[in-house]
Write the structure tokens for this entry.
Amino acid sequence: MQQILIMDSFTDFTISKQLQYAIEDLGFEKPTPIQAQAFSVILSGKDMVGIAQTGTGKTFAYMLPILQELKFSKQLAPRILILVPTRELVLQVTQEIEKLGKYLTIRVVGVFGGVNINTQRQAVAQGADIVVATPGRLYDLVLSRALNLKSIKKLVIDEVDVMLDLGFRFQLTNIFELMPNRRQNIMFSATMTDEVAALIQDFFIAPQTVSVALSGTPLDNISQYCYAVPNFYSKINLLVHLLNDNTLYNKVLVFVSNKKSADKLFEVLNEIFNDQIAVIHSNKTQNYRIRSIEKFNNDKIRILVTTDIMSRGLHIDEISHVVNVDTPSFPENYMHRIGRTGRAELEGTSVLMYTEKEKAAKEAIETLMGMDINLLTWPSEVALSDTLTFEEQPLEAENKTSQKKRDESAGSGFHEKKDKNKKVNLGGSYQYTIAKKYKKPKTRGDKNYNNRNKKK
Ligand code: AMP
């Protein structure tokens, strides 16, 4: 077992005056645990694997030793490459490096997809010491010979678990091949998965592991609560009730599991909180996403609705609450989501809403964390909705199954059924009862109501 030197004050760090001044300007009093542990390992030049969640101060954990070592140079080709999974993260990391390198002469360039490549080509052509990039765009720049990776001395892969989840393994391998073999590899991941372990096995040389939060260990400063809720529209009622308290819920990140729910939720909330809210997911344009995040970051809006994919690259500070409207089916996603609050030792709160169907997923999260989430009683002043989303309606589920069965038998090469044996879908009795009961949709959210009835 190798020994790691742990330092509990920035004065224990062998860092230049310029870095010390920058840290003072940032107002940091002491290193976070990952910074304390990673500093000497990275400085030693060994490969390193850091297991740390977002919010633990991991960006400065790798940037401090890297900037300490980086000598002034006029060389055009970069010496440091930082790979991150999302465009937002490129912007955030670039900004953090600029803050830390305030009194140094360093050239940092951020590159990411979805925007004009020519501007980025020109930016890298001016020369850079550090390139922060998403893998796809970086690879394109190298292929078009705008960028050369032959001088890379240190490679940092941040949020590698997210990167592999997003399917970047192939691009990563391609990029590794464009770099010199003699380089230092540094990687950060919130969780250790089989895929992460395989990547380390293939490309790292005897890495030292530095770990501050084991997979499934929530940060102590996040208070976690949950509500048992019958359906999606009751969840919305509860969410509106919570968000009405704008003193307590002053910066709220709201998670749902897919774009469709995000849009549906936004549509309802926007009516009530319209100048305080935005939604971001992968279908939104790059500019819209950047603008929304900036507004949220600068406290121009109070509520941001988002999905898991978008969530993980976001670096936003002082989030008061993370609200999980859907219970994530992968417990790790819950860890990522709640890790957005309680960052850098600030207090944070997370709220989870789960339906009967999501109960097992909630229990899986509790098993992963080794603790129960405090169950709160339903606030009596909040109305329970009996409107069901299309997906929640039992008949639709039955219809889907019978449709699937029909499709399967149609494709299985069996003879056609005689007419009298054919099942004809007449809409089903439940749908009929509901249609009779409600002459018009109960909420705007049930857009399919009219379509369903037209079909009859
Ligand atoms: P990260 O985990 O890199 O996303 O960092 C989370 C936040 O912690 C960033 O906003 C940093 O500015 C902040 N931070 C980093 N290091 C420290 C420190 N030593 N003391 C207080 N805040 C810090």
The longest strand covers residues 222-228. The domain at 10-212 is CATH 3.40.50.300 (Rossmann fold). Residues 404-456 have pLDDT under 50 and may be disordered.
